[in-house]
Amino acid sequence: MDPITVLNTDGTGIIQNEDSVKEPIVWDIECSESGIPIFKEGFDSAAYSFWYKKAKATKEVEWTYQ
Predict the structure, then answer these.
(1) Alpha-carbon distance 40 to 23, whole Å?
(2) In degrees rounded to 5, what are phi and psi of residue 60?
(3) What CA–CA distance (Å, rounded) separates 63 from 8?
(4) Is the pLDDT reported for residue 6 higher than 90?
C-alpha cells in the first residue's frame, strides 16, 4: 500500500505510512512569532517546515517535523 497524507484546511488530517493503519493528525506550518509562515529558500528549492502530531497526543513535544 502506498503511503498517504490528507491535509484538511482546518489543521486536521490523516497520515498512513506503508503497511500502517490510518492515523488522525493535527498539522501546522512553522511560523514566526507574528504568525507569518517561515519560508526556507535553497539553491533550486523553496520550502515551508511542516509539523504534525497524532490527534490523540497530549504533549507538545510529540510534534514531528516532516
Answers:
(1) 28
(2) -60, -30
(3) 17
(4) yes
Measured on CA atoms in the order 26, 32, 35, 40, is the torsion positive or negative?
negative
Handedness of CA 49, 51, 11, 15 (dihedral sign): positive
pLDDT one-digit tens code per residue, 11-57 = 999 999 887 888 999 999 999 999 999 988 888 888 889 999 888 76
Instruction: Tell whether the model's pLDDT for residue 1 goes beyond 80.
Output: no
Q: Which three cell numbers stand for residue 15?
A: 497520515
Burial 3-41 (b: 16+ CB within 10 A, else e): eeeeeeeeeebebeeeeeeeeebbbeeeeeeeeeeeeee
The residue with cell 511560523 is 31
DSSP state of 56: T
